[in-house]
Amino acid sequence: MYLILFFMKNIYFDNEHHEFTTSDLTINQNNISNFLSVILQVTRKCNLKCQFCSESEIFEDPSLATLKSLLPKLKGVERLYLSGGEPLLRDDIFEIIDLYRPHFKVLGLPSNVTLIDDEICKKLKGKINYLNAGLDGPREVNNLIRGGYDSIINGLKLLRIHNIEVSLSTVILNSTLPYLDYVVQIADVLDIKKVKMVIPVSRGRAIAIPKEDFASEKDIIDKFNEIKKLKDKLSWNPRIKFTFWNEKTEGYAVLVYPNRKVYAWPVFNMENSVRYLGDLTKESIIDIWNNYPYKQNHIRKYTGLSMNKC
Question: What residue ranges define each of the domains in the chain, with the CATH number in brackets?
Fold first, then answer.
């Protein structure tokens, strides 16, 4: 395992599994002076209509000049996600990647990978640390809630052929729960080192998901334990992770919307399950960190201390 040591006491980045880690169980907000990870939404446009999407409200895309102006405002962040919507829908996405690459130790690109081809892979190689893709089960299951199964599988194959590192996210619902082991098997076949299982938040398009399709905590734990046993029995390589949304994870993620306003997510007692933190047109991300009320949750979540994993 290859680890990068950051300038924060006892916090490392695991390049193999694309995650922060720490051996210090007492790690706290006094150890760091800025966000470990920030999600910058460069677009809200998308070519899929996932049932669980929390970011379905459309905003105007920020211009390349606007994105350039944010660089000094984001100084000190260790990992940046250039997120969406679907970032690859932007004609200038590779200019954006080139703009941001020198300024962050880790640059991630979430994508639904349905647009991936050889040319895109060639342009991405060496420019990002990894790409985070989504897959929710076999064809019929995935297409029911996400769509694009065959394009996703083709995109994942091409990315791995070009030796671009990939993490997988898979959504936990009662309709996907029986098939989570299928996703881990696909990850193992493609030498994808991490599978993150995600419980949807009832926000955006996900508000329409029937309550009965949200899996219970017991059923999720039972399935996770089943997968742990299968992993040991079948020698699957991917690391598998998930977390419950509770007081220890509330507000852990920091989203910069296309309009440069900054929000903490998920915060369930707030409208749209987000809490307004500030505006990067008026203040820096360090200013926002200094007044951020979820520092400990942010650290626990991103260093894996609030995660279930195997």
Answer: 3-309 (3.20.20.70)
Orientation angle between helical segments 217-234 and 180-189, nearest 10 degrees: 30
Q: Which of 164, 96, 166, 108 is nearest to 135 (CA)?
A: 166
Residue type for position 64? L
Sequence-ordered list of residues with C-beta below 8 angstroms from that of 175, at least 6 positions apart, any chain: 141, 144, 145, 213
Three-state DSSP at 244 gives: coil
CB contact at 8 A, 298 and 254: yes
Instruction: Give the list of residues 6+ apart from residue 12 with CB closer than 8 angstroms, or none.
Output: 3, 4, 5, 6, 20, 21, 22
Query: The whole model's pTM is what?
Result: 0.95
| H runs (alpha helix) in the chain | 64-69, 93-100, 118-124, 139-145, 149-161, 180-189, 217-234, 285-290, 295-302
Residues 6+ positions from 85 with CB-CB distance below 8 Å: 41, 42, 43, 44, 45, 46, 55
Helix (H) or strand (E) holding 116: none
Give CA–CA dist 250/34, Å, rounded.
18
Which position has the higher pLDDT, 15 or 222? 222
The CB-side HSE value for 179 (13 A sphere, CA atoms) comes to 16
Question: Which pair of tokens denotes residue 303?
Answer: 């260093």
Structure confidence by residue, pLDDT tens digits, 70-116: 999 999 999 999 999 999 999 999 999 999 999 999 999 999 999 99
Phi-psi group of 206: left, alpha or beta (phi > 0 → left; psi -120 to 50 → alpha; rest → beta): alpha
The helix/strand/coil state of 182 is helix
What is the distance between the alpha carbons of residues 5 and 112, in angstroms, rounded to a whole number?
Answer: 30
